[in-house]
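This week, study the protein below.
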Amino acid sequence: MHSLRWLISQTLREDIGNEDITTNRTVPSDTRCHVRLVAKQAGVLSGITAFRMVFDCVKARPAKWHALSNGDTFNKGDVVASFEGNARAVLTGERTAMNFVQHLSGVATVTAEYVARVAGLNVRICDTRKTTPMLRKLEKDAVVHGGGSNHRHNLSDGILIKENHIVAAGGITKAVQNLRHGVHHLMKIEVEVTNFAELEEALEAGADAILLDNMSLDDMRAAVQRVRGNHRVMLEASGNASLERVRAMAETGVDVISVGALTHSAPIVDLSLLIESA
């Protein structure tokens, strides 16, 4: 919570500068208002904690607060949140608060769409590290609010040997061997592969998980068949995981589908903040 308050203070400083000239010259300092956050489309809520904290930070002194919870669904026309507050502070914090809740609800809403596309199949929809700088924690929380799962949060959170690591280390086998001697026995090792030769090398080297990168559906199915008897190896698919393609990817039998678009391409959810005199 402390880190979120710091982040919000920095975003407010960016947006306000020295002062909100327009608001401070047009609205009396003691004016109170009623505030409603209204949905202009259906979606899944995320970022309501940040939304509220913005108004706390600008000293809007929110009262009579009512809001849906993160992860709740809403329809067009629903009141997502309402409160009373100081009008000057509400107007000053409005854009920052809306930036958080609209973007994060967009991530949650897109994630929910992906999760719905693979309903009934034994697969997890995961995010990636393709996140907005400084917003990773909030965006990954939004993925969970949408029904998805988190991949590693940072580079110290797990091992994933990617193409450039393989080149720099001198091959898959060498990279895995180096890691086996360099980390504790509870740390799993995942290797990214793009073809069957790399898949075989990763299996031979003793990878615990394998990421099938940009493989065709036929190749994914063949890879699943190849490792199905080896229950300790988890298969992750990544690359071109569009809404139109994700169910077919899941039907190949992979365990996880990681989707960068959940965070790097999610459109905002259309919400409107309306005020009335108190």
In short: The chain is about 45% helix and 20% strand. The mean pLDDT is 96. Residues 120-264 form a domain with the TIM Barrel fold (CATH 3.20.20.70).
